[in-house]
User: What shape does this take?
Amino acid sequence: MSKSFLSPLFFWAVRDLKRRPLESCLLTAALLFTVTLTATPLLFTQAATTTWVSILAGGPSLVVREFNTMGWAPIPADESVAIAKNVTGVIAARARVWGHVAGPSGLLTVIGIDPNRPPPWATLIPNEGEVAVSVDIERDLAAADLTVIGQETATLKVIGEFKAHTALAVNKALLVHIDNAREILGLPSGYASDLAIDVFNPAEEAAIQPDLAAAFPRPVRITTRTESAGIHTAGLARRGGVAVVILVPALLALCLLVTVTVRERLGRRFEIGLLKALGWTTGDIVSLQALRAVTIGITATVGGMFVAFILVYHHDSNWPGIFYTEWQNLPTRLSFNPLDLALPLLEATGLVVLPFLVATIGTALRCAVSDPGEMLERNYF
Amino acid sequence: MKGGLECHRLTFTRQSPDGREKRVLNDLNATFFAGQLALIAGETGAGKSTLLHALAGLLRPTQGEVLADGEPVSRWVSAHRDLWRRKVGIVFQSDRLIGDLSAMENVFLPLVPRGYRPGECRRLAIKALRRLQADGFATEAVHKLSGGERQRVAIARALVSQPSYLLVDEPTAHQDGNSAAAIADTLLAVAAAGATVVVTAHDARILTSGITRHRYQLECGRLRMKG
Amino acid sequence: MPDRIWNCKRCSTILCLAAMVALAFFIPSWAAGPGKGPTPGRKTLDPSGRMHIKATDRCPVCGMRVADYVKFSSAIQLADNTTHYFCSCGCMLRAWLYPDIFLAAVREDLKTPVVREYFTGDQLDGRTVFWVAGSDVVGPMGPALVPVMGEKALAAFKRRHGGRTVFLLEELDPDKWFAITGRKATK
Assistant: This one.
């Protein structure tokens, strides 16, 4: 007798699946669907978190805002930049003009651009009276102008839209000339909304705060990149956690699958009895059922994860953004990190595939230890 | 003569549908030697199949024991009995084939857990089918075969693993005269090769064929030697 | 190893695969080979003295990939202009103390130590900065030896991160190293 490298039981398991092709396909499809439902929310949360962190890595290390008894206050631009640059450890400081205003369909984010010192990410540089918009702003596409209502109402000429792949980082954003921004936001001339500061060493983000705060003559609130990342990722995780509510019908579907599987296994007691009569041991029968279940499980897991991957990462896939956040009509292009697949894969395997395997193997074990004569004579079908 | 299978005070009781207990085998003692073919006759419902199932270790006796080569296999835990059953080839009264599998697949079922490669399983199955002149429909699904063809497939399945103990229940029930004779010759050849062969039948052709002088009658749950 | 494991085709194949994977992890550390000495960086310092670290450059003291720790990286340029890159200033200082052990070079071959100033990231000559030991700053190899430029930066660093010892590179010798770190530089 020549031994095969792969157990012959594996080939028989595949043959056994082919005996009832429709059932096998339906079972695999149902399991695949459940894996997709389970993995997608978590995969999106992981992907969005990774993307957010990588975007923030390109942002400032710290943001300084002044506040008074009325709340947030404008910060004198040049004076604050000079104060910040004088603090040991600050390698760059820039004043930013931005804020929220009302637009045609809700709150908009206005960002002021100084044409003499445009940020490196700005591909469209508006002049006075012009605006570049993000793709998700609802407007009359035929109209050349956009009216913005802030402290002042401004009607600006639209010069273009941001590229779609920047849409994840900007939400209903307008790029305007810095002077227009100040007018719309009600900022006095020479003032800014906040100060963006860069340090070289990440450890300085926390350590520099006391010296930085002490350098300013007025009270300031300093937010680090780590804090911002934490706030955003916590928000995403919260939304992802709420989205887990979707899992409830998925898990109900899984219970149904497991019940059907158990019933089907029990209905094959006759076959199990016959196999035992032909010299199959309990271990062989359980191995066969395990291989069947593992084949289905692996197919469903790989297929389900693939579908989840496409749903989340495909460049035209905007439904996760719509579903999980308040973003509307926003194509999200998420950064892919292979490690992000690990947790959803673990969750899908643990929540979906493992109970299925346990149900199948457990039932097989229960049947296989019975006396074969009884199983043959009762003749279950 | 070395004892192949022995029954010591073998008793088996069933529950009838009305809840009463019926003793199918009653304190049965018998020895079936290796290298011999034993033929057991009896009326319908006498317990021939039950005796065969008990000898094959498919049923646990209510009392008494079954010994194989002196080992009390009926008292073993099911894990050990499962392994011992690899030495047993059994042909059921109603063939007990898996209908949606082909004849060849049914025949090599006993070989699958023993680690044979798929190609070797097919080769041995075809060889066993050829022995029963059943290789012509090896690839046909069993549910498409006639009763006689299915019976030959069932016998081939019992023979494929070259068992040390061959237990056959009504091997010629659906066969014509020539096929019945061929099957009888096959069973004799297996016995001559050293296996313990036990055949139950009430087919007159096999009972009067004189293929063996080790003949028994099963009556009232006990075996009585005939002839 | 029991015979039955070697005789089992499946088990022996799996064992061989596992051995190959384990070897693959350790091969990089064998790359230099015995007697070949440490491999200098693929690219030397540019004329302005700036480091050019490649993905394959490894620290000759600890073997870690320098590109993974750019903010803490440092370098020593030798007289023949070959440059060794280090994952941290601690490793660079150990090589500076014992060039024969870590760089297969003599002391006279040492030309320029290049470090990144802690606050600005500027690449400076390590002989022109203050070195601070015993602060709360953690580098790739644990508690970091931090280079800072100027008295103002030094005062700010000590105020924010502490620091038990301040020294200049010219003051560093094996005894000083032992006093600072509690370990020998060769270990």
